[in-house]
Structures are given as C-alpha cells and as structure tokens.
Amino acid sequence: MGNDCQYLEEELLRKIAEADEKAFARLVAHYAPIIYAHILSYIKDPQQSEEITQDIFVGIWNVRTTLPDIVNFRAYIFRATRNRTITALRQQLSHESLAGRDEWEDTLSNPAEKMELRELNQVIMAGIELLPPRRQQVFKMSRLQGLSYDEIAAELNISKSAVNQHIVESLVFLRTHLKGKLPLWIHLFLPLALLQ
Fold first, then answer.
1. Helix intervals (H) in 65-179
2. CATH number belonging to domain 3-89
3. Residue 137: which of 167, 176, 94 has the closest Cα?
4. Tens digits of residue pLDDT in 127-186
5. DSSP assignment, residue 143?
6. Which listed residue, of 19, 35, 73, 114, carries a Cα 20 to 30 Å from 79's Cα?
C-alpha cells in the first residue's frame, strides 16, 4: 500500500475509533469481499464463510478504540482472518471425527473389536466425568459441542486463556487416565477430536 493509501487508511481507522459508522462501512466495503473469498477458499461453505467474515468485522468494531495504534491494519485483519479460519476448520474436523465414531464401528468386522471400541468410548466418557466441574464443562463445550474458545469464554464469562488452560489440563488428565486401558490396535481409532 502506498503512502497516500496508508495515510487514508490511518485516517479511516481514527474515525472508526471515534465510532464513525460511515467510516466503518467504507472499511468493510473494502476488506469484506477479500476476506470472504479467502475464508471461502478454505471453508467451502458460503453461509459459514459469510458468518465468519461478519464475526471478524464485529470483533474489529468491538475493539475500535485500539485501531489507531495498529501499524499495519492489512496484516492485522489477515491475521484475524487466518485465526478464525483455523478455528472453523478445527471445529469442522471435530464434528467430522465425532460423527465418524459410528462409521468406525461399522467398519470393524470383528465383534470383539466393536466391543473394545464401545468400551474405549465408555472409558473416555468416564474420564471426562472425573474432571472438576468447571473443567468438565469447558472440555465438553469444546470437544463435544464444537464451540470455539472465544464462544466458551463469552458464555462462561471467563478469559480465553482460562479456557485454553482448562483444555490443556483436561487433555493431560485424560491421556494419563487412558494409559494402560487401551489395546494397541485401538490407537488407530482414537476419537482425535477428543484427545488432540
């Protein structure tokens, strides 16, 4: 971006920081199509891509008073886009992995292996139930309901870093809980959405 464009964008950001909705509309008109196309190229779902694009701009409006301090807004918005896209892709993988557990069962031809897979699921769910109440709640919201860390933090009125800490400690506990309880072959079929 040239110096003139940089100056104009700095002025636009300053106006947005002062809650100028027209200035914000100009910023959205410029960046939204680029952001949307980028997200769509990864997510492959137009409606979800549009929702994520809107979320990004809502987030920018919510922190508008900090915008004049941003040295490179283009880099800032693309970093936000990348982070939200990664979160959405992780949620998709989580939903696919959880939905795929039944398919895994169907693909196992040995009745003994099917029984072991059911037992594994019971062991994992029992391990989740052993977590402290708040940690259990956060873990279930993340791994079973597919909510993002931001969504969990907002719903429970805690920080995003607290959500992350709950997830990390839950995973450490569950990995320890599962040690020695799994047959060797079952590692190929672990529900990755739960244990990653």
1. 73-107, 111-129, 133-139, 149-156, 160-178
2. 1.10.1740.10
3. 167
4. 888 999 999 999 888 877 778 889 999 999 999 989 989 888 888 887 777 766 655 434
5. I
6. 19
